[in-house]
Structure formats: C-alpha cells, structure tokens
C-alpha cells in the first residue's frame, strides 16, 4: 500500500472513495462535511437519509458508506470523530476506530484508493498533532489492507500538511 500526502480540497481528489468527517446526524454540516454535501449534491443527502432510516444516527468511531453523487469519487465513507473537549477516556480509541472502520468498508466494497481528511481537528478540537499520529499509525499498522493500493491524507491547510509530513517522514 502506498501512502501519500496532499494539500488540497478533498472534494476534488480523484480516488475511489473519500472519507467525510461527518457529524452524528449524517445530514451535512460545516467544514469538510458541508463541502462534501454541497459539491456532491442531493444524492449524498438522500443516501444518508436512507442510512438514518435503517440504522439511526452514526455514533463516534463508526462509519457508513454512500454514493458520492456529483463528486469524482465513487463512494463517500462517512465517519464521526470524537469531540476532544467532552468527557470520557476513549477519545483516542474512537478516533482510531474512524480510520479502521472506514478502511474495513473500503476493503468490503473493493475500493483501491481512498482519501482521508483531518478527522476531528476542526470544530471537534482534537489536538492536531495527536490526531495526525493516530491517523498515520492506524493506517500504517493495519494488516488487513492488502487490497488497498493507495491511502491519501488530504490536508486543506498548510499547518496540518506540515504536521502530517513530519509524522509520515518518521514512518
């Protein structure tokens, strides 16, 4: 598996699946979530509504897969990160689960290339360095990814890009 880092807009990356840093409602929001819903169009929202009708909301650390609508990707994998400044000791495990569950869905759906945003580091306020370390460690230490050819970490801003570059360089 090839690991790649880009400073870009995740909605423009050409991969089989992009990962959405969603909220529990799955109905869109701000940041990455809002951008994916806006550019992907109503098909994504409709698919998310169907997921909600079947299983209810998506809990932190869980993931679901939908169409990508108007995006160049075939799929969007929605995962809900952990809010940093709320109680509980499971924050790091739940963030790692976001990556693990998204990757499991990718394997189950024959996805060969997948792009991840910086999950939980925006409004959820997860410390950026810790979140990046969890992301890279989880992906690089997952033995079940033999069918995935490329994992791309997409950083919208230069600050996150530099954090990821330093961590990836040490791998």
Description:
There is one protein chain. The protein has 171 residues and is α/β, with parallel strands linked by helices. The chain has a single domain, classed as 3-Layer(aba) Sandwich (Leucine Aminopeptidase, subunit E, domain 1). Helices cover 39% and strands 19% of the residues. The protein contains 5 helices and 6 strands. A 6-stranded mixed β-sheet has the order 1-6-5-2-4-3, sandwiched between helices. It is globular. It starts with a strand and ends with a helix. The mean pLDDT is 95.
In DSSP terms, counting alpha (H) and pi (I) runs of 4 or more, how many helices?
Answer: 5
Order of neighbouring strands in the sheet with most strands: 1-6-5-2-4-3
Sheet-strand content, in percent, reads 15-25%
Using the coordinates shown, work out and report the CATH topology: Leucine Aminopeptidase, subunit E, domain 1
Summarize the main sheet: 6 strands, mixed
Class based on secondary structure composition and strand pairing: alpha/beta
Please identify which CATH superfamily we are dealing with. Answer: Leucine Aminopeptidase, subunit E, domain 1
Helix content: 25-40%
The average pLDDT value, as a whole number, equals 95
The SSE order reads EEHHEEHEHEH
Q: What top-tier CATH class fits best?
A: Alpha Beta
CATH architecture: 3-Layer(aba) Sandwich
Sequence stretches where pLDDT stays below 50 over 5 or more residues:
none
Query: What's the structural domain tally?
Result: 1
The radius of gyration over CA amounts to 14 Å
Number of DSSP E strands: 6
Q: How would you sum up the global shape?
A: globular
Question: In whole angstroms, how far apart are the ends?
Answer: 13 Å
């Amino acid at each position: 598996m090839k690991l790649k880092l880009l400073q870009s807009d995740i909605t423009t990356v050409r991969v089989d699946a992009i990962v959405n840093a969603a909220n529990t409602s799955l109905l869109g929001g701000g940041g990455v979530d809002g951008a994916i819903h806006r550019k992907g169009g109503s098909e994504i929202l409709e698919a998310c509504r169907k997921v909600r009708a079947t299983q209810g909301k998506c809990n932190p650390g869980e993931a679901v897969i939908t169409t990508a609508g108007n995006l160049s990707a075939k799929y969007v994998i929605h995962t809900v990160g952990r809010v940093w400044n709320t109680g509980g000791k499971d924050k790091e495990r739940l963030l790692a689960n976001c990556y693990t569950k998204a990757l499991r869905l990718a394997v189950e759906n024959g996805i060969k290339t997948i792009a991840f945003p910086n999950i939980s580091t925006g409004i959820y306020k997860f410390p950026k360095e810790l979140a990046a370390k969890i992301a890279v460690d989880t992906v690089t230490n997952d033995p079940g990814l033999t069918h995935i050819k490329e994992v791309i970490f997409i950083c919208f801003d230069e600050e996150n890009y530099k954090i990821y570059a330093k961590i990836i360089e040490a791998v």
